[in-house]
Structure formats: structure tokens, C-alpha cells
């Protein structure tokens, strides 16, 4: 009886070790992109990855203030044009502080959802649309506005309804529920 119990315990330990090794192997095989000093894992959702990026602390704080965490953890898929902290720093002084106030939640939500497009659009797909569109592709945002994808010798750019442009500095950061393209400027709806 003691031999059987020992054998069962050994079998369970071996199976647990194999499962842990298989999970570690899968994680190692994941093609990650580093953003803000942290790897972004395709098996994690947009929020699970974004909270680890040192370059997106302002964006994460804004998403929390707007009550969009649950949405961006959802099934999606979403394409998110994610402004860096430096992008937010380009806004006039005090803008972020004002937007983060509870009474400005609707305006903040509008700005943030303007950075989100339904579906998972890779840079290759965006490029294909740009070429098909004669140099630009129009996208409809979750907010209801429009963005345009443009290409020049420096790569892909996003143009907002006010005429501002943002360079896609890191493309194709795959998530379990979409894709993130890091941008260097905050986009603004009309």
C-alpha cells in the first residue's frame, strides 16, 4: 500500500512538473515585443500588457479614470493606437489633469475611444489598405470619428480629424484581444 501511495505521489509530481515545463515552453515560444521596458505577451489582453509598460502610465491612468478597463479586457478584437507618456506631454500644460477629473469623464472617454478601431488590423493590413486607397486609408473609430492611415519614407502615420499626425513608432504589438500600435502623438476628434 505504501509503495502504491509513493508511486501515485511520484506520478502526480512528474505530471505537475511536465505541465509547468510545457507552460514555460509555451511562454518562451511566444513572440513578444518590448514596449516601455517590458515584454508584451500575445496571450495577455490589452490591459494586462499595458499596465507593465513604463511608457504608457498616463494612458493606463486615463483608461482607468474613463472606466474603460473592463472594455479593453473584453473579447474584442480591437486595434489600439496607444500614445506614449511623451505623447501626452506634448499636450498643453494641465490638459491631462483637467481630463482626469470626474466631471470630464465623457470628454476623456471620447478621446480615448477615438484611439480604438474595431477589429485586429496589423501594419501589413493597414499598409495594404493605404496602397489600395491611393496613399491613405480611412478607419472608423469606436468613438464614431474617423482616422486616416498614411505612409511616407519614415513609415506609417495616423492622421486625426483636426489634421494632427502621429507616427507609429512600434507596430504590431499583438494581444489576445487585438493589437496595439504605439504612437508618438495624442489623436483628437473634432
UniProtKB/TrEMBL annotation:
PROSITE patterns: FAS1. Residues 1-22 form the signal peptide. Residues 43-187 form the FAS1 domain. Keywords: Signal. It holds the Pfam family Fasciclin. It comes from the Bacteria. The keyword Transmembrane helix does not apply. One of its GO terms (cellular component) is extracellular space. InterPro entries: Adhesion/Biosynth-related, FAS1_dom_sf, FAS1_domain. The keyword S-adenosyl-L-methionine does not apply. This is Uncaracterized surface protein containing fasciclin (FAS1) repeats. It comes from Flavisolibacter ginsengisoli DSM 18119.
Amino acid at each position: 500500500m505504501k509503495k502504491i501511495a509513493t508511486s501515485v505521489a511520484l506520478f502526480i509530481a512528474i505530471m505537475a512538473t511536465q505541465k509547468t515545463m510545457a507552460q514555460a515552453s509555451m511562454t518562451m515560444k511566444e513572440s513578444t515585443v518590448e514596449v516601455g521596458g517590458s515584454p508584451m505577451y500575445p496571450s495577455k489582453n490589452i490591459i494586462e500588457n499595458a499596465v507593465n509598460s513604463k511608457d504608457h502610465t498616463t494612458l493606463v491612468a486615463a483608461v482607468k479614470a474613463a472606466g474603460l478597463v473592463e472594455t479593453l479586457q473584453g473579447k474584442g478584437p480591437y486595434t489600439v493606437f496607444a500614445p506614449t507618456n511623451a505623447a501626452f506631454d506634448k499636450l498643453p500644460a494641465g490638459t491631462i489633469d483637467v481630463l482626469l477629473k470626474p466631471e470630464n469623464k465623457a470628454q476623456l472617454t471620447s478621446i480615448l475611444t477615438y484611439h480604438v478601431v474595431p477589429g485586429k488590423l496589423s501594419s501589413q493590413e493597414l499598409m495594404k489598405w493605404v496602397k489600395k486607397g491611393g496613399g491613405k486609408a480611412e478607419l472608423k473609430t469606436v468613438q464614431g470619428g474617423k482616422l486616416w492611415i498614411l505612409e511616407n519614407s519614415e513609415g506609417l502615420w495616423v492622421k486625426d480629424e483636426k489634421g494632427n499626425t502621429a507616427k507609429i513608432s512600434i507596430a504590431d504589438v499583438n494581444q489576445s484581444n487585438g493589437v496595439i500600435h504605439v504612437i508618438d502623438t495624442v489623436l483628437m476628434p473634432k
